[in-house]
Amino acid sequence: MIIELHLLQSFPVSNLNRDDLGQPKTVRFGGVTRARVSSQSLKRAARELFTSHGLETGDIGRRTKQLPERAGILLAERGKSEVGRAQLVAQEALAAFGFGVTEDRGRSEYLLYVGPAAVEHLANYCEKHWDALEKEQKRKAAVKKTSRAKIKPTQKDVIEARKVFDSTRVADIALFGRMIADNQDFSVISASQVAHSISTHAVANEFDFYTAMDDMRPAEEPAADMMGTIDYNAACYYRYANLDTDCLLRNLFGEESVPPEELSAEDKALLVRSVRAWLRAFVHAVPRGKQNSMAAPTVPDVLLGVTRTDGAWSLANAFLSPVGDVADLMGTSARRMTGYFDQIRDFYGDEELRGVHYGALDSSGGLSHRQPRDCQEAKGIDAFVEGLIGSAGL
Predict the structure, then answer these.
(1) Which pLDDT score, from 0 to 100, does residue 146 have?
(2) In this structure, how many other beta carbons lie within 10 angstroms of the beta carbon of residue 160?
(3) Phi and psi for 142 in degrees, rounded to 5?
């Protein structure tokens, strides 16, 4: 089953996601410049909220370069060796798995996305093969080997590495996937796709000129002691993401996993709380860029959720022609989005749809009248989320 989220969210003065020049990210779409927030930024913001929306610490993975350091500390705590020596052995273990290790700090060359038990499994491997790993590490040190060239791991080492990089029952890796260039066997296909958010209308980035004063400057010396600019814009964004619950099921419990209705109570609970956390976290996800300076923690005004047996429909093309300079920007954008959704249903058919859920902040009474046809109107976030979970058969 596929669950889709279509959200409309307006931000006042903000710089949520900066480019390399510090300016809010943009894109040309429909012949005009739009504000943009990258999918990576949104996924990061959502991932940070998972434990606030039902997932437990033990359900969450870690992105880190510090596996050898942490494994060395654990080995020292077990009394195997002093920390420095243990960390060198752990570095050699990671190298035996075919991963590059930096020479300066002995960390992995890039961030590795691992489950909460990865450090313990790496430490266990080091204990099991301590003599051989220590001997190889000393041999390299004796010949003053300056290159940590990657090696092809043996089949036995691959089996051990699978324990370290086991991602079953790790919800965020199951949701967002994992790409490991050094060994594709450890890669995980993402169950969730997240689009770059774009504004429903044209934008022009602006900048704020600021000055700061030295509090201890004598009164007779008035002047600005610091000055600069901060770029910003303001926009109403269309946000889209989807989740393949069948792929999530396989990622969580293995390729031979059973259908949801045949899962054990424990596994079913993990599946449902993963989906619930994904839905709630994405609704509430707000990137942290420049929030201390601009404080723009808004929530979506319009939520459209769809469950379907297959396929996926982004509604971004509803805004291919940008919304113009109108007083009711949110209402006009909502009408565009839901109207375009109904147009797709009319032309392509909607046999695969299993549920359409709509919710809106509606203080003026206008947004509720812009809902798509044949939808279930949700009066709150709880009803919206639980309605989608129910229509997805979970």
Answers:
(1) 47
(2) 19
(3) -65, -35
